[in-house]
Write a sequence for this structure.
């Protein structure tokens, strides 16, 4: 895997999973999944990723080889006795909502991130959706990051709000979906909710809205509204949000120059990766596409969003 | 009312109403409303509008004077014995859905559009949401239009599908919201639904998604995705879709040059008008703002959507 323009690596901590997913397009059993996997493979289109996670003893070795082949450093993915985290879910209709059928945490239940020494100098850090106490632990071990970001979910917002707020106080970017933004703040209006989240710490709040695109709020007078790619078929939405955030952080690591203009580009690259990801089950689409495909779709996004001045 | 750059007028047919609306921001009783009113006042920021509708004998004269003062030709709005169309509704939470509390058609029930002779040479025609049989009747009386568009609603999709299809076969642009696009085609995927609607006739399908912006589909390889304006407070969403379509058609009449680039601009102007409209009850915000405010917000839309090339 060649990552020609990477200037920095991105450290990614989160779940590595075997997912059983059913959608109107079909079904896969115990396929490669997990937030850390989707986000690190998305990031790997732009920059080397450093994965931190845990799998069970029987986790298929070809999955780890696939990650390594994508430029993902897998030394931070521990193999321990027990079973790998397993999620089973289904999607229906507009597929905007997953129905969770089973969540077996297995080895993920006692997961404690253990960073290889050189990981601690990572300049770009993405804390994918895990227990905020673990997100904090990772932040404690990274020495001098340039850009940190977190994701979360409804479960942590309701069960560990204090730990989550500590995470938010320490990251630069919060990735949340619209429902999570509302849940976290009690604000129905998304712009108000984003403002409230920014008060908790993150200078940048990126609201993921699935098929409706995303919104980025920051100190600027204007937020950024990014379209989603108008697909005629969504095969499997699993991992879209992780691919979005991973692509976004991977691009930021590759340019290693934090400006709002670059963050806006990164968000469109994130949308690009998310749009490819949902075109196949598990990581099948990421296995097919090249960086050139990513660049072509980025240019399509430009055409989709373009309008002339007044 | 000065409309400095108007090259053509836009004929608009639809409801003129007195609305009672309750939202978390307050309540108005029997305030000026109706699809033809919202859309013709939105259009009037760009071009003269020609209104076609009906009101009851007691309809407040200041409402008609307001329309005339905005550059709306009111000769096509008939005053007849009986009561004006009355709609009562409320909005809660994210206000994306109206709860209809009362619909009293009154004089609108026996409405038959009767176009003043000079209206029949209108080059721009917007058939707001009314019985598709009446939309067809208007099309039959317009001699040589350059650009025709229709709106509709769930009620006509289920009750008069054949008449609606005849309308769609004859207009250039169909404005529908996402739920209507799905209902009309049976397709959950919006891009597929838009393609199916285009097969029924309209070369351009514009899907209105409320707070999630809009999508325009045409023969081009790329659709156009427009953001909505990120408001911190929505006072009353009534008339947003009508303001969007009216602003869009008014802009097209003002430039009188049909290109995809102009249509994309028109959609952003439509979004601009819709965003102002929802900031007040009834047409209160339209009474406050000037064309300069519209231009300023258009430029804000540019900043909100902008990202650099890859």
């Amino acid at each position: 895997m060649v990552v020609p323009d990477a200037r920095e690596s991105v450290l990614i901590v989160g779940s590595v999973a075997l997912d059983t997913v059913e959608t109107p397009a079909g079904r896969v059993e115990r396929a490669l999944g997990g937030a850390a996997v989707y986000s690190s493979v998305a990031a790997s289109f732009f920059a080397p990723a450093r994965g931190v996670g845990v799998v069970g003893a029987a986790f298929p070795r070809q999955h780890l080889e696939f990650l390594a082949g994508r430029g993902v450093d897998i030394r931070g993915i521990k193999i321990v006795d027990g079973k790998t985290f397993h999620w089973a879910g289904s999607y229906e209709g507009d597929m905007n909502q997953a129905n969770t059928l089973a969540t077996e945490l297995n080895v993920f239940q006692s997961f404690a991130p253990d960073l290889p020494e050189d990981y601690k100098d990572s300049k770009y850090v993405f804390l994918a959706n895990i227990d905020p106490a673990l997100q904090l632990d990772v932040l404690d071990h990274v020495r001098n990051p340039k850009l940190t970001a977190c994701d979360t979910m409804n479960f942590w917002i309701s069960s560990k709000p204090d730990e989550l707020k500590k995470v938010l106080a320490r990251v630069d970017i919060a990735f949340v979906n619209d429902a999570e933004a509302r849940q976290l703040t009690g604000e129905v209006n998304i712009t108000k909710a984003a403002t409230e989240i920014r008060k908790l710490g993150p200078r940048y709040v990126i609201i993921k809205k699935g098929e409706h695109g995303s919104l980025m709020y920051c100190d600027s007078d204007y937020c950024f509204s990014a379209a989603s790619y108008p697909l005629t078929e969504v095969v499997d939405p699993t991992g879209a949000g992780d691919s979005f955030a991973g692509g976004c952080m991977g691009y930021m690591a590759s340019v290693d120059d934090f400006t709002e203009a670059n963050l806006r580009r990164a968000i469109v690259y994130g949308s690009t990766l998310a749009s490819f990801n949902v075109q196949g089950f598990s990581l099948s689409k990421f296995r097919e596409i090249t960086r050139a495909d990513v660049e072509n779709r980025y240019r399509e996004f430009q055409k989709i969003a373009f309008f002339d001045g007044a």
About this structure: Chain A touches chain B at residues 93-94, 188-192, 195, 209, 211-213, 215, 221-228, 230-234, 261, 264-265, 267-268, 295, 298-300, 302-310 (CB under 8 Å). The radius of gyration of chain A is 18 Å.
